[in-house]
Every structure is written in structure tokens, then in C-alpha cells.
Amino acid sequence: MVLCAEPPPKLKIPESKITELADDACHDSPKLERRTRMHHIERHRSCVVTLSDMELNDLQPRRLLQTLEVSKSPGTGSQCSLHEETPTDTNASHRRAIADAAWEALKRSIVYFRGQPIGTVAAIDKSQGAALNYDQVFMRDFIPSALAFLMKGEHLIVKNFLVETARLQSREKMVDLFKLGQGVMPASFKVHHRNPTLKTESLLADFGETAIGRVAPVDSGLWWIILLRAYTRWTGDNSLAESPNCQRAMHLILRLCLSEGCDTSPALLCADGCSMIDRRMGIYGYPIEIQALFFMAMRCALSMLKQDSDADFVNHITKRIQALSYHLHSYYWLDFQRLNDIYRYKTEEYSQTALNKFNVIPESIPDWIFDFMPSRGGYFIGNVSPARMDFRWFCLGNFIAILSSLATGEQAEAILDLVEERWEELIGEMPLKICYPAMENQEWQIVTGCDPKNTRWSYHNGGSWPVLLWLLVAVSVKLGRPHLARRAMELMERRLAKDEFPEYYDGKAGRYVGKQARKYQTWSVAGYLVAKMLLDDPSHLRIIALEDDGHSRSRAPCLKRSNSCP
């Protein structure tokens, strides 16, 4: 059946017209006799074609015949049938053209410092006027670029990036009169030409003092450790990770994250806008994205810290990994049964065996979650803190949980089950929703502060981000479900290159290029390339995925209802 954008009245094509069109489509099959052909057309007597915006008599035969396919089935010979075009019609040459365009764009984005490649700019869109900070090299944005370069065999740019950012970390960092912790990594940096005549260059780093909202990037240091492990794992070169500068950088990052405070939780306390979602979106507290990255960074660091490292420090990391794993499995995991338990929670429980430890009021559960949660599937929710559970789905945190083996095997499968069950909501027409659902109306006003960039189904508020495709492909390959990855790839290949690799898409289904999206956004380009290479050669997954070591997960004990519960 040929589908149309608007549902007009259905018209039946006369049998004679169908016969005529089928004859034209099948004229290249000399073995197909007219009697056989007429027999099969008779079988399609009830075929109804829905047409839009035109009368039947105005149809161009060529356009209609695009929906005719000559097919063969065992025992019936050749036959002509009406069918709908699908994403699988994208041929290999088209994919090669997209990949070639992506590699060209990625190479144009390379930044050089003193003659050496050092990173890639955020975007190379010249049509937007002011560059703002899109002409800088961002820590988190460079991750997919780095993975693409490593898998391509171009290691130098990744090594230079790691070395120079470790040097930037050692600089004194001031916001107004306040000095930031030594372990903070820059959100971004750019090459400053101090004297163009003498060609003297320096790097200017942003640690949050010039960022929107003046928030330090908590995720930058965690991504740096993960990338260092990816470089070491892929190249087999341990000398960089074992160098004094890199060892010091890891120690500073983790000591900052492991520092003791007044928290009763092993999770990392963060301000709003401290990660990929870098604007006010209600993720303050203990967002799942940061917790999953923290877990993965600690595991990566343990594999790279030198044998003569401080034993107490290593032991501290190990214990924090186990405590964080226990905490996230106990309080962040949500599936149908767990949702039903929370729905029946009692409040004001006082005891060690309380089930509702954070005193979450069941009436605060949003209505949408009851329809969204399938019987098969589950995920780590966005945030947990006193009297608050953020039930939103956050893509990055859940996929990093799978890649880092924070999620158990059953949980990992359940997360992909959820994606498959809620494909239209989370994937739509352009992968991939950064979070779901979008906030709107009064909730949007209160939580975002009426942010005009984060309106409903746009940007970080339910927008669709092509860069997240590489994560979906990686977890699909890890779990042996590449059909999900291919399905998403085919969707993206329809439009990504034609739309000039935009930063994000808007709309509930991701149909529209984002209203403020930059074109040729580098991590959209690199994300596609990494996804393609992972699908072409699944062995590349070793660059980013961690296997379950059996020691990093502590099981939550089975708790009984407390005595304070009526």
C-alpha cells in the first residue's frame, strides 16, 4: 500500500488500469506469459491504493510504477505486487557516499596547535554568523571523534589531545574570587594566536568561568579517563597512561570525586547543567548520566593506575565502585514490578528496613510513566534524592550503564527491550531522544526558567540527537542484537547527510532540523562514523566496552516491609 501524508478519500483503481501498469512493469520478463500475469493480477483484485493531492488521471505512470516490484516466489514463478518503499532500499553506494562526506567533514574540523592536530571543533557551520563557542574543542564532543580516529588508525590526534588537556588541568582555575578544585578538567579550549606575525600560539581553556550558567563540567574529567583507557586498549601503548602527567591527572580527577562530604549517598552530587545537558533541565542532585560515567571512569582508572600507586587510594576506589553499584541497583532501577511497588509505597517509615527510604510520595509519580512502562523492559531512572524520583528516561546514562557493565545482563537486555517496545517514542524518525518525555507548560516554565532553547521536544528537552546513535549501536552489538542498530542506521541514513549533519532535531518524532541546530556538527558526523565502523566490524567494540569483572557489583539484599508500615 502506498501511504500518503494526508488521508484523502480512498480511490479504487480500475482493474484495466492495474493490468496496464503491471504489464509495463513486467515487460522485461520474457518468460512471463500474459495468462500467468493476468492470473496473478486477478489475485490483487481487491488492491486499494490511497492517493493524495492529485486525481488518478493526473498520475505519472513512472511515479506509481516505483511501487511495483517484480518478485519471484517458489512454485509460482514471477509475479508483480504492490509494496511500500522501506529503508532497506538504501544501497551500499549511498552508504559509501554518506561515509565519504562524513570523513571529509571530520577532517575539515581538525584543529592544529603548533603544527600538530589536537582536536576537532564543535561545528564548522559558517551560515550561523557568530561562532559563540562552537569554534572550540569540547572534551565531551571530541569523544566520538577520537574513537573514529583511533579505529581509522590515526592515533596521533588522540594522544595530543590527552597530553594537552592534562597540562591544562594543572592550571589555576578561578571563577570570580573562588578557586576550583585541582582535578577539574576544562569543558573546552581553543587555540589563541598571541602574535600572528611570529606565529606564537597558546591554548585558552574554559573551566566553566565563561560557560552559560557558569557551571563546571563534571563529566569532562570522567570522559578524559575513559578516553585514555580507549587509547591504551586500542593502541596497546601503555606508556602514555603510565606517564607522570597522566597518572597525576587520574589521581586529581578521582580524588576530587571521592572527596568526603556530608552526603549519605555514594553517588556524585552535581549542579544543574554539568554534563551533556548543559542548561537548566532539573538534573541537579545525582543524575544518572554522571553516576554511570563515574562508575565507568573508576573502573577504567583501576586498570591503568600503576602497581606502585597508593594502596589506600586504590582500595577507596574499589569500595566506592561497589557502593555506587549497590546504590544504583537498589534505588534507580525501574521496571514494571518495581513501578508497581513504588505505586503502593507507604510513607513516613522509620527503621533500617524501610522500603521507601527516600520518603517518595506515590502521588508524585507522573501519569505518563504508567503508559510508558511496558511489561517487558526497564531502565535506570534519571535521579533519586529525598522525596524526589525523576522518572525521565535519559539515553546516555542508560547506555553507558550497559557499556560499563554497571547494568547486569538481565538489566542490559531489559533496557534494549524498552527501546524496542517504545521505538516510536525514543527513536521516532531520527535517532535518538536525549531524554523522554519533554517538559511543557507550567513544568517547563518552573524547571527550565522559561528557557527559549529548551522548549518542548527541542534541544535538551526531548530533542533527538544523532550523536547518540553510536551508543545505541555499541550496546546493540554488545548484546548481540545488531538488528536494532541497523534499523536505526537506516533511519538516519535517509536524512543525515542531506540535512548537512545537524546538531539535533526537533519534534516529538524528530522530524525537523532543530531551530537553532548548527549544521556540520562534528559529533553528529563522528557519531555516524563510529556507529558504521562498529556495525561493519563488531570486534571494534573492545575500544569502549568493559566486561563484567565480577567484583564491581554488590547485590542489594532483599528487604522486608518495616514495622512502621501499616
From TrEMBL:
Gene3D superfamilies: 1.50.10.10. It comes from the Eukaryota. GO terms for biological process: sucrose catabolic process. GO terms for molecular function: endo-alpha-N-acetylgalactosaminidase activity; sucrose alpha-glucosidase activity. Pfam families: Glyco_hydro_100 (PF12899). Keywords: Carbohydrate metabolism, Glycosidase, Hydrolase. Its EC number is 3.2.1.26. Belongs to the glycosyl hydrolase 100 family. This is Alkaline/neutral invertase. It comes from Panicum virgatum (Blackwell switchgrass).
